[in-house]
UniProtKB/TrEMBL annotation:
Lineage: Bacteria, Bacillati, Actinomycetota, Actinomycetes, Micrococcales
Entry note: cofactor: Binds 1 FMN per subunit.
Name of the featured protein: Coenzyme A biosynthesis bifunctional protein CoaBC
Gene: coaBC
Cofactors: FMN; Mg(2+)
Organism, scientific name: Nesterenkonia rhizosphaerae
Entire protein: shown range: 179 to 421 of 421
Reaction equations catalysed: N-[(R)-4-phosphopantothenoyl]-L-cysteine + H(+) = (R)-4'-phosphopantetheine + CO2; (R)-4'-phosphopantothenate + L-cysteine + CTP = N-[(R)-4-phosphopantothenoyl]-L-cysteine + CMP + diphosphate + H(+)
Top-rank lineage group of the source organism: Bacteria
E.C. numbers: 4.1.1.36, 6.3.2.5
Residues engaged in binding CTP: 106, 116, 134-137, 157, 175, 179
Alphabetically ordered keywords of this record: Decarboxylase, Flavoprotein, FMN, Ligase, Lyase, Magnesium, Metal-binding, Multifunctional enzyme
Family, per entry: In the C-terminal section; belongs to the PPC synthetase family.
Mitochondrion as UniProt keyword: no
Phosphopantothenate--cysteine ligase: region residues: 15-243
Length: 243
């Protein structure tokens, strides 16, 4: 018998989702990591699959299990930002949507010590020099412009606390413009907020070029479960694809 043809707002579309955190090795037993749980990314992958898309989930280090692979959901595991970059480069080429929910380390140790770093008798502490990791999101946007192919809808994710002088929404607006992607999903973070939780509060911001096309200016606000937030993001991406 024939496999059922996927129905839903993303039927026939390919969606790449990145989730979780990266881990940057320092020596064979140590790494620099972050507190991303992977929950938002996994929720996005499941929502996109439920919307009928062919989904490729690129997952870093997560607190939760990766979803079980299905005919329309494949899972690839990575650890470092460099590995994530290589995986996104390959997967994004033929994708319609890229949802960049992974927490990518901005820096990695400049030198990997092949042998475990040991304490020394003089009581001195080692100095760890860092170097910048590639900006995978910004690079993907740039490559799309150069090669005239790649995802039509690229979505960035940012967790911002803001500070005394700057509102998180303002920071997110600036980040959206800097990255050049279509949408930016902002998580307002404070103590105990967002990381590892099942609920979240997001704002979906649209880039100027998207707003001009759709004639809208307001950031969409969603408070609820990470699954509800994911559904709103996926719906937005589907709407943009159709536009
Ligand atoms: N991102 C990425 N590559 C990086 C860092 C971030 O692709 N090296 C992506 C993230 O996956 C996310 C978006 O960029 O979708 C925003 O991440 P964020 O850390 O908020 O942005 P940065 O440009 O790193 O800014 P900041 O200095 O505030 O961390
Ligand atoms: Ca960062």
């Amino acid at each position: 018998s024939l496999a059922p043809v996927a129905a839903g707002p993303l039927a026939g579309r390919t969606v790449v989702v990145t989730a979780g955190g990266t881990r940057e090795p320092l020596d064979p037993v140590r790494y620099l990591g972050n507190r991303s749980s992977g929950k938002q990314g996994v929720a996005l992958a499941l929502e996109a699959a439920a919307a009928g898309a062919q989904v490729h989930l690129i997952a870093g280090v997560m607190d939760i299990q990766a979803p079980v692979e299905q005919p329309n959901l494949s899972v690839e595991r990575i650890e470092t930002a460099d590995q994530l970059q290589a995986a996104v480069l390959t997967a994004a080429e033929d994708a319609d949507v890229l949802l960049m929910a992974a927490a990518v380390a901005d820096f990695k140790p400049a030198d990997y010590a092949a042998a475990k770093i040991k304490k020394t008798d003089d009581g001195a502490s080692p100095v760890i020099t860092l170097q910048r990791n590639p900006d995978i999101l910004a690079d993907t946007v740039q490559r799309r412009a150069q090669q005239h192919r790649g995802p039509k809808v690229i979505v960035g994710f940012a967790a911002e606390t803001g500070d005394a002088s700057t509102d998180p929404l303002e920071l997110a607006q600036q980040k959206l413009a800097r990255k050049g992607c279509e949408l930016l999903v902002l998580n307002k973070v404070g103590e105990n907020l967002v990381f590892g939780q099942d609920t979240t509060e997001i704002y979906i911001l649209a880039a100027d070029h998207v707003q001009q096309k759709l004639g809208e200016t307001q950031a969409e606000h969603v408070a609820g479960s990470k699954q509800e937030a994911a559904a709103a993001v996926v719906a937005r991406a589907a709407q943009l694809l159709r536009s």
